[in-house]
Design a protein that fits this description.
The complex is a heterodimer of chains A (about 180) and B (about 220). Chain A is built from 7 helices and 5 strands; from the N terminus they run αββββαβααααα. With about 180 residues, chain A is mainly alpha-helical. The longest helix of chain A has 22 residues. The model of chain A has no long low-confidence stretch (mean pLDDT about 80). Chain B has one domain: Methane Monooxygenase Hydroxylase, Chain G, domain 1 (Up-down Bundle). In chain B, the strands form 2 sheets. Chain B has a 3-stranded antiparallel sheet. A two-stranded antiparallel ribbon of chain B has the order 2-3. The longest helix of chain B is centred in the middle third of the chain and has 26 residues. Chain B is elongated and about 65 Å long. The chains are: A mainly alpha (about 180), B mainly alpha (about 220). Chains A and B meet through helix 2, helix 5, helix 6 and helix 7 of A and helix 1, helix 5, helix 6 and helix 7 of B.
Chain lengths: ~180, ~220
């Protein structure tokens, strides 16, 4: 499981999830413009995942499928996974999907995420090791956080290899060594 | 060893791989007389003029720099052998030819420090560069095929240290991602236990993990 201090995990839990209140709740103020501090049963609200998760455990709310996993996205990813702009839909697409799949009871989520990642992985693989030292490609603006990490890992290892091959000064002179001694009087 | 921010995906820098390659043995022909050197890693010498002897590459380079020896290029660095390997690499898409584990580093060190000891150095250098490029392209192709297979594993034999090191961060991350998305915990439990499952993912039996682990170990082999 993700590290407690993992900043990506924390940000991921800020993703909004549409929920429906199953019970009427008193004394909460979700919408500041509401006249009462009272939420009726059956009202639809968007809550961040960390809050929705806790309320879900207490069976106060029921989660709905978030927008980034709707039917249209699934169709688009099925048609041409590599060309879909996932970054704008959800920066933490895969992590969010993994977290939310058991909560919304989506049995196909795992295989859906895997097949999406597969098609996109191939694209990243083709670009990542070749496009070193070129301007950031259009591809990069489509990638989620995880895919970007993957891409950058490949790019940096290619860059490190090129640097090693070209060589350079093998020993760097420490900055203190070259300095002339100051006259102290 | 290598100081990276993410310890689980540590990668060696090119210099570190080169450092490890310097332990490989090469043959030198000294031009002076010297008593045996008793090192922690072994005893080398004694050295007599014009008598070939085996020493580690780092020692050979140190002596070469001082003009105390000539280095005999290894047998695989002959033009005939390299031409044969290059042709074989181009012919078969799947198999990699057997080359020394550190061939990239050894050849680059020899080109740098002992260019006058290698006959036809330009030819040898360009052959090795070609071999490296062809092989790396094959590595990429075989990595492409591993996500088509359902096992999420790929068999790549006879990779060299530098090639493994190049793809290690990418492959490590990709395997982790495949493992995460293909793991069984994403299938929810029907009787309302889903919440607990969310937290207990570390205890899920790792059905696919062995395959991933084997693939990962194959790639980390010997480093």
């Amino acid at each position: 499981m993700a590290n407690y201090y993992d900043i990506d995990d924390i940000i991921m839990e800020q993703q909004l999830v549409p929920v429906v209140f199953q019970k009427a709740v008193n004394g909460v103020e979700i919408d500041p413009s509401a006249e009462t501090d009272y939420v009726e049963a059956g009202s639809k609200v968007e809550l961040p995942l960390w809050l929705a998760y806790e309320l879900h455990l207490k069976q106060v709310v029921k989660m709905k499928v978030p927008a980034c996993f709707n039917h249209r996205t699934k169709l688009e990813l099925g048609a041409d996974g590599a060309a879909v702009d996932l970054r704008s839909r959800c920066l933490y697409f895969y992590e969010f999907g993994c977290k939310i799949a058991p909560l919304i009871g989506d049995r196909d989520m795992g295989s859906f995420l895997l097949s999406a990642f597969r098609t996109r992985y191939q694209q990243i693989l083709a670009k990542a090791h070749n496009a070193a030292f070129t301007a950031p490609s259009k591809l990069l603006s489509f990638l989620t956080k995880e895919e970007t990490n993957l891409y950058e890992a490949a790019q940096s290892s290619m860059a490190a290899f090129k640097k090693w091959r070209i060589g350079g000064p093998r020993f760097e002179r420490a900055s203190v060594l070259g300095r002339k001694r100051k006259s102290t009087d | 060893m290598a100081g990276q921010t993410d310890p689980s995906l540590s990668i060696f820098s090119g210099e570190e791989v080169e450092f490890m390659a310097e332990d490989e043995m090469v043959e030198i022909v000294p031009n002076m007389r010297m008593d045996p050197l008793n090192m922690l890693c072994g005893d080398f010498g004694p050295f007599y003029p014009q008598m070939a002897t085996q020493v580690p590459l780092w020692l050979a380079i140190a002596m070469k720099k001082r003009g105390k020896c000539t280095i005999r290029p290894p047998e695989w660095m002959s033009i005939e052998n390299l031409t044969r390997i290059l042709e074989a690499e181009r012919d078969s898409q799947a198999a990699f030819q057997v080359l020394p584990f550190h061939y990239v580093e050894i050849s680059s060190l020899l080109f740098e420090y002992a260019p006058d000891d290698i006959p036809d150095i330009y030819m040898v250098r360009s052959l090795i560069n070609d071999i490296r490029d062809v092989r790396f392209h094959k590595v990429e192709t075989s990595l492409e095929s591993f996500e088509e297979a359902h096992s999420s594993a790929v068999m790549v034999k006879d990779l060299s240290a530098m090639e493994v090191n190049l793809v290690r961060p990418f492959v490590g991350r990709a395997l982790q991602a495949f493992y995460k998305h293909g793991s069984p915990e994403l299938v929810p439990n029907p009787d309302g236990m889903s919440a607990r499952r969310l937290q207990a993912t570390d205890n899920i039996p790792r059905i696919d993990w062995n395959k991933f682990y084997i693939a990962y170990r194959l790639l980390s082999h010997a480093l």
